[in-house]
Amino acid sequence: MGDVIHELTIGDPVNLLWVGIGTMLGILVGAIPGLTGAMLIALSLPLTYAMQPSEAMVLLVSMYVGSISGGLITATLLRMPGTPASVITTLDGYPMARAGKPGRALGLGIMASFAGGLISWGFLILLAEPISHISTELGDFDYFALVLVALVLIASVSGKSLAAGVFSGFLGILVTIPGESPATGDTRWTWGIEQLNNGFDLLPVLIGLFAVSQVIHEVASREKKVEQISQIAPEGILLGVGDWLRHMINMIRSSVIGTWVGILPGIGANVGSVMAYSAAKSVSKQPEAFGTGSEEGIVASEAANNATIGGALIPLVAMGIPGSVIDAILLGALVLHGLQPGVLLFHNHPEIVYTIIFTMLIANLTMFGMMLLSAKWISKLATIPRVYLLPVVVVFCVVGSYALNNRMFDVWVMLGFGVVGFMMERSRIPLAPFVIGFVLAPIAEEKLGAGLQATGGSYAPLVTRPVALTFVLISLVLVVWPILKMWRNSGRGDTE
């Protein structure tokens, strides 16, 4: 651990450079409505091929931290959340900015973002290694049941429609079928197309779903007029000790909520901010102020959405299970660099795990300084016409996809999944279950296949092993409970 800290700080100045570049790019992209951290990281993956695995993870994790934080700037000053995680921030950030206190609104958001990141990092460093050790004791059926929980949970909490979440997850699983079976090695569903023998590569799929689909969306929709605060004064951004102490309980409570929401696969930072905001309002002495420029509301939202980063990284580094879409992309980055994510990552490559962990800490410190110094100017990015940004994004999409295997097939895959992503979003089908299903399905198939081989084709360990049975029961509850809830609500509607 000490060697990793030394390399990240004073041992290798290049790593600090990557932290600075990654954090700033994340903030910039996060501040531009329509551009997301997932899109930035997906586009950056091809650029990391020539880098060492540790350097690549430093850059990508820094982008992750910066992109979640950057959204608060335009959410506060322009009423345009740069990321879905900052939607709740607009409820109080923008009214406070319009009331003549844009600097203080930004300062509260930056303070809370920093606190949320630090508190969740504390949970990350405390829990990641113990969970990893526990995970090594899991058998193939235990691990399959655990992945099953993740898949079911993603589908059940994504979006307002259970059916849409299930359909999206099923579609993601379906896309993993072409190519070699992870369990048997047999080739299937290739339809004579030689390029499909290895299945769909992760990178073109991700770039298509998040970057190309967004370009199509921007082209298809009219550009909205940006409502900007006329006078943005930087005064008040740097808050005093009294402000930190006054909001400390709220920041701790919201950060804990955000961390534990982040641990749950597929829920996301926006859900964390909603839950923390609701909790803060329920215990506030002035609940009526929420939505009109409440300081408590800004703090709760930003502390929680940044805390989900540390929470989501816990299952990623400990078990190889992504807690969010961005974590799924980071999982793909590990694979692209020849690293096997999962329970053995801590044992085989501890330097990579601790690089990820301590990069989050350094990136949060960097983010805090950059946001304080540049928040006023970054907000201007949202006013740049999309006509200048979109061609650049398209070029990066094509180059990134082609560079993977030097073949046009991957470019066509990227464009195809771009259309798929656009149609899914237009139909209000969430993308998160698709991506996580696409990433987790091969793992589930591999573990189930290995388990069946060891037992001669018997599924009995799913109910005879306590851990596997527990996870299976949790999966059943997660599936049945929303259905019962919908049935109960429909029954009430009929009686009324």
Describe this structure in words.
The protein is 73% helix and 1% strand. The protein has 496 residues and is mostly helical. A hairpin with a 6-residue loop joins strand 1 and strand 2. The chain has helices at residues 2-11, 13-31, 37-44, 53-77, 89-98, 102-135, 140-157, 162-175, 202-220, 241-246, 248-263, 269-283, 295-319, 325-336, 345-348, 350-378, 386-405, 408-426, 432-455, 461-464, 466-495; strands spanning 179-180, 187-188. The protein has a two-stranded antiparallel ribbon. It has one domain (2-488). The protein is globular and about 70 Å long.
- Spatial strand sequence of the major β-sheet: 1-2
Q: Radius of gyration, Cα only, in angstroms?
A: 22 Å
Strand content: under 5%
Nearest-integer average pLDDT:
80
Derived structural class: mainly alpha
Keywords:
496 residues; mainly alpha; two-stranded antiparallel ribbon; 21 helices; 1% strand
